[in-house]
């Protein structure tokens, strides 16, 4: 399987954790980096709202995930891998996983299971590495990047479960440029679908028989950090981020949706940097207050979080709020 | 190294290519507010206050490496807007929570808020609902006032203790302590000197001192530690290493102290006692290596973590306790003053000296040798409150019973106690006076220093170490090779007392090195450079200690140690 890296490159695989980094490039960087042992880490954290494709894959195709991880291990020349599980997920699939770990153990591959307390920051790869190392679950300064100084400061491939699944598909020649889509909200058939990655969102909803009869708007890629679109914009959009598609009835009030987001950010901020730690708390406090929504105050914090937060968790808040204002409320602050 | 040029606010600056923009700004006295940056500790980049604009983008300057031709703006409209919002978030409720602001003392954070027009009232902190935690009677922290910069935690770890930690997610993040029964605070106060907002601070005794000064029945004595004179100028904007000794004597008189003495005199007594003991242990085959014991942080470390080493500690009391005790006995008798009327106030670079001053075991005739201890920072607060402009005072002189030798002056620097003791031990062992008094091998900022010293026909091996972590390693070494050393000096803080927990903020290793230079300069200028030749000390030993019973003398000169429990 020496040509796996070429196959991945040819298939244009990108990471499915949300950031969309080219997989072949990441793997090459780890292979070229100095240090031993190197590590492969698979991430099934899924701390973002609206996502449940990792558990879907783990339940249905655990062999494929292992296959993808082993391909990565062989490629960078290591026998060491870590499985990061959202602890709720591990309970659901541990029998299958244990059986597969045993199987690969006999072939000389070591898999260590790490169960994380479900959190959004666990999806930030350096925070995840800190968690596995037993340190405070907070993101690290980058550089150095994990490809050079990852787990225990050794070169490390960290990929999402779906990425490893795709790698296995590529190896088997079955990859069809599809991705998993989690459809949520008051639709007829919510669930996980495997759809062509360039399919327009209106098509996604229609082909899965989920196009609502009511007026609506959607949030794409993650139901806290993803952008928001009006239903009449969907013919121009494809699935992005980590692969969720949440439908909100047009009757959803600004307070309802902002409360959902701000509560999430306030609860999930790891506490490391000022704008995210204090800003998310103040946002939640502002939206809890009765009376008219204080848009000006809110946007000042949102902008500060977006432009000065330490990691992606904090600066992602600008996307949903700003796109909601622009695409749905059609409002300028 | 080849220097490179960058521009800060249009001003061309040459700098070292390894530096960050923030460090260059600090070195060039360009003000960029920052709370989680300290040049001796890891760069965390999480307070997000040190924002600058580069190519129309706003970034943090603490982790922005300089490169040739880089041009940054520290106060552009974009920077101002984002920085001020972060400062409002970070410093929410500061004035309500800060121990200095609450009582109207000078506060650097409040000054920064005025400068950048931060109200501190735009937002309110999330209630943490945890009480103030006392670190013995030395320091304390308020979880509600903590801004999660993490510097105290990193410093506690660096010292080798790991007592403090941050806990809680999001806005619940706050300072707390390690519940492990095997881990305890040694009261060194390094947390307090690394806290940018005084959420961790010394337990304040300014009010007690003011009350004593007002009390007409009391005779109030001021005694200043070696290190304070070399650092307090920083609180008044002077360069590190400015010697404020003469101005401090005047300032203390202005504050209303009846007598101005000096802990340096006490340091000469300590050297005398300790060198005598060292000479005896070496001559008579006592427990070796002998460890110093004048640092209460180190003593607490030994008593809690390594009780097996306690027989090795010198039984000598520490300088402030020696001089305090001498003034309340020998001097009081000389002056025909009732000892109970005397209040001794120490000015120390240290928080654990507050803890030491309250040891029951040190009492003489039911009296504490020292009644109150103010840190360098508290001293500056008191002076500022009384509008005493220290740098511009007329130089003053110490009262005659506070005179000291050069050996005492260097007590503040790591290696200083060792050097002082060697100068006298040489005489006690050989009967001859040492000609060259400098022991350069034990000087400097290195955490562990070793030297072989020839005393007469004998070579004695010494080690000097700073910070508990290194003391732990040395103790292990001693256990493995019991005959390797004869004498070991340990100080809990980096650089010794001069880098102590009560010193001005910021206290960095570069600043500490400048302060140390000031101490050695004082030594160089002293006519008497050996403790046992200080006439005040000779008078004390020859005309007082020699004439009282051994038991009584021991109560003034010696102490004892025991294994300690957590929080004891």
Briefly summarize what is shown.
The complex is a heterodimer of chains A (333) and B (568). Chain A is globular. Chain A has helices at 4-10, 23-32, 53-60, 62-76, 87-106, 125-132, 161-172, 201-207, 254-268, 274-288, 295-308, 312-315, 318-329, and strands at residues 39-44, 80-86, 110-116, 156-160, 178-184, 191-196, 216-220, 228-230, 244-249.
What do these coordinates show?
The complex is a heterodimer of chains A (333) and B (568). With 333 residues, chain A is α/β, with parallel strands linked by helices. Chain A has helices spanning 4-10, 23-32, 53-60, 62-76, 87-106, 125-132, 161-172, 201-207, 254-268, 274-288, 295-308, 312-315, 318-329; strands at 39-44, 80-86, 110-116, 156-160, 178-184, 191-196, 216-220, 228-230, 244-249. Chain A folds into three domains: 4-172, NADH-ubiquinone oxidoreductase 51kDa subunit (Rossmann fold), CATH 3.40.50.11540; 178-249, Ubiquitin-like (UB roll) (Roll); 254-329, de novo design (two linked rop proteins). Helix content of chain A is 44%, strand content 16%. Chain B has helices at 21-27, 77-90, 94-97, 99-102, 108-116, 151-159, 190-193, 206-214, 245-255, 263-284, 296-305, 319-335, 352-357, 376-385, 406-409, 416-430, 468-480, 509-525, 535-543, 550-557, and strands spanning 4-8, 11-15, 51-54, 57-60, 71-72, 133-135, 139-141, 164-167, 174-177, 200-202, 219-224, 259-262, 290-291, 342-348, 372-375, 448-455, 458-466, 487-491. In chain B, the strands form six sheets. In chain B, strands 12-11-14-15 form a four-stranded parallel sheet, with helices on both faces. In chain B, strands 13-18-17-16 form a four-stranded mixed sheet, sandwiched between helices. In chain B, helix 10 crosses helix 12 and helix 10 crosses helix 16. Chain B is globular, with a radius of gyration of 24 Å. Chain A binds chain B through residues 119, 136, 141, 266-275, 277-282, 300-301, 303-304, 307-310, and chain B through 43-49, 51, 58, 60, 63, 82, 85-86, 89-90, 92, 123, 125-126, 147-148, 166, 168-173.
């Amino acid at each position: 399987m020496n040509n796996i890296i070429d196959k991945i490159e040819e298939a244009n695989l990108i990471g499915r954790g949300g950031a969309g980094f080219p997989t072949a490039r990441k793997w090459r960087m780890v292979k070229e980096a100095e240090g031993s042992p190197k590590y492969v880490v698979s991430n099934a954290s899924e701390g973002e709202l609206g996502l449940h494709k990792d558990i879907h894959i783990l339940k249905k195709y655990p062999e494929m995930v292992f296959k993808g991880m082993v391909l990565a291990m062989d490629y960078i020349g290591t026998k060491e891998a870590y499985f990061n599980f959202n602890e709720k997920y591990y309970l659901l699939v541990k029998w299958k996983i244990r059986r597969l770990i045993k199987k690969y153990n006999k072939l000389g591959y070591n898999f260590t299971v790490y169960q994380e307390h479900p959190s959004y920051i666990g999806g930030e790869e350096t925070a995840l590495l800190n968690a596995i190392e037993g340190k405070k679950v907070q993101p690290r300064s980058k550089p150095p990047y994990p490809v050079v100084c990852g787990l225990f400061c050794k070169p490390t491939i960290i990929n999402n479960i779906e990425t490893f699944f795709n790698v296995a598909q590529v190896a088997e020649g079955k990859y069809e440029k599809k991705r998993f889509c989690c459809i949520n909200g008051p639709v007829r058939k919510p669930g996980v679908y495997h759809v062509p990655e360039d399919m327009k969102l209106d098509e996604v909803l229609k082909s899965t028989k989920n196009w609502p009869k009511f007026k609506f708007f959607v949030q794409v890629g993650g139901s806290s950090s993803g952008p928001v679109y009006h239903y009449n914009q969907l013919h121009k959009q494809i699935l992005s981020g980590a692969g969720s598609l949440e439908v909100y009835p047009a009757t959803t009030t600004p307070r309802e949706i902002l409360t959902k987001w701000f509560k999430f950010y306030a609860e999930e901020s790891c506490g490391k940097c000022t704008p995210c730690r204090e800003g998310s708390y103040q946002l939640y406090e502002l939206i809890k207050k009765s009376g008219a929504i204080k848009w000006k105050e809110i946007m000042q914090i949102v902008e500060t979080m977006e432009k000065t937060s330490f990691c992606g968790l904090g600066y992602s808040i600008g996307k949903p709020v700003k796109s909601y204002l622009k695409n749905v409320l059609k409002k300028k602050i | 190294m080849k220097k490179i040029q960058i521009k800060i606010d249009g001003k061309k600056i040459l700098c070292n290519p390894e530096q960050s923009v923030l460090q260059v700004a600090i070195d060039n006295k360009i003000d960029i507010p920052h709370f989680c940056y300290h040049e001796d500790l890891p760069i965390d980049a999480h307070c997000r206050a040190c924002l600058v604009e580069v190519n129309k983008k706003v970034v943090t300057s603490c982790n922005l490496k300089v490169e040739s031709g880089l041009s940054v703006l520290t106060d552009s409209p974009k920077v101002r807007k984002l920085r001020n919002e972060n400062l409002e978030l970070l410093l929410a409720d500061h004035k309500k929570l800060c121990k200095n602001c609450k009582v109207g003392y000078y506060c650097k954070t409040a000054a920064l808020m005025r400068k950048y027009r931060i109200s501190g009232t735009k937002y309110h902190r999330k209630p943490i609902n945890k009480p103030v935690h006392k670190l013995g009677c030395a320091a304390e922290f308020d979880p509600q006032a903590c801004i999660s910069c993490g510097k105290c935690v990193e410093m506690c770890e660096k010292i080798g203790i790991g007592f403090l930690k941050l806990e809680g997610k999001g806005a619940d993040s706050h300072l707390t302590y390690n519940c492990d029964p095997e881990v305890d605070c040694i009261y060194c106060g390094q947390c307090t000197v690394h806290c940018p907002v005084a959420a961790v601070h010394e337990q304040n005794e300014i009010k007690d001192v003011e009350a004593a000064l007002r009390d007409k029945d009391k005779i109030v004595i001021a005694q200043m530690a070696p290190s304070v004179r070399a650092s307090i100028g920083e609180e008044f904007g002077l360069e590190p290493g400015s010697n404020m000794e003469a101005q401090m004597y005047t300032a203390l008189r202005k504050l209303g102290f009846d007598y101005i003495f000096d802990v340096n005199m006490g340091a000469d007594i300590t050297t005398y006692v300790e060198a005598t003991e060292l000479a005896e242990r070496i001559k008579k085959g006592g427990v070796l290596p002998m460890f110093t014991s004048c640092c209460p942080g180190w003593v607490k470390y030994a008593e809690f973590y390594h009780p097996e080493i306690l027989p090795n500690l010198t039984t000598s009391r520490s300088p402030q306790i020696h001089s305090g005790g001498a003034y309340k006995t020998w001097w009081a008798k000389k002056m025909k003053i009732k000892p109970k009327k005397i209040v001794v106030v120490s000015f120390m670079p240290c928080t654990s000296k507050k803890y030491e001053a309250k040891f029951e075991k040190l009492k003489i005739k039911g009296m504490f040798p020292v009644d109150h201890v103010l840190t360098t920072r508290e001293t500056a607060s008191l002076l500022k409150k009384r509008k005493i402009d220290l740098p511009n005072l007329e130089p003053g002189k110490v009262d005659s019973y506070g005179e000291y030798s050069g050996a005492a002056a260097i007590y503040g620097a790591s290696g200083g106690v060792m050097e002082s003791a060697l100068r006298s031990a040489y005489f006690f062992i050989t009967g001859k006076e040492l000609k060259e008094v400098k022991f350069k091998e034990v000087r400097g900022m290195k955490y562990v220093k070793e030297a072989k010293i020839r005393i007469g026909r004998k070579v004695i091996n010494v080690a000097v170490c700073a910070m508990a972590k290194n003391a732990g390693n040395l103790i292990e070494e001693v256990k493995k090779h019991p005959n390797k050393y004869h004498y070991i000096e340990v100080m809990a803080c980096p650089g010794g007392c001069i880098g102590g927990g009560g010193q001005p903020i910021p206290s960095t290793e570069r600043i500490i090195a400048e302060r140390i230079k000031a101490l050695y300069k004082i030594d160089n200028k002293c006519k008497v450079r050996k403790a046992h030749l200080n006439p005040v000390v000779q008078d004390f030993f020859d005309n007082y200690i020699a004439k009282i019973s051994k038991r009584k003398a021991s109560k003034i000169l010696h102490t004892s140690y025991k294994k300690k429990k957590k929080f004891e």
